[in-house]
Amino acid sequence: MYKRKENAYSNPEDLRVIAKNKDQGTNAAVDDPESMTNRVKRIHANDLENILPFFLVTVPYVLVSSLQVSSTTSPQYAIWDSVIGNVLMFSFTLSRYLYFVAYWRAWQPWRSLIWFWGLMTTVLIGIYTIVCLYVL
Questions:
Q1: Which SUPFAM superfamilies is this protein grouped with (predicted)?
Q2: Among 4, 19, 34, 90, whose CB has the most other CB atoms within 10 angstroms?
């Protein structure tokens, strides 16, 4: 959608196919860093770079958490364990949505702070997983 609107394409061969005449194809921008198309690509790449570590930390937490519920620990601890884990996972998800908006709108100081919030949430889930393993 933005590629056609901004006349910005990733590859020069795309310009030749889409251009109606030869002049239009040579004047169009290829990978303009200021284009909204490239901003969306960077948002998507950043999501992939941050969601993978989150999954790598969260999957062991979910496995350890399910082991704790079935073990002989007190029921109160098991309830708090799931509440803390759910709050941390929701916090990361919220940070990624807010990061998307901040990146889309180019809110620079907020974008960095929201990214750091998501990073710290991932680190806290990792630490909490280790704590849960120790208590188990």
A1: MAPEG domain-like
A2: 19
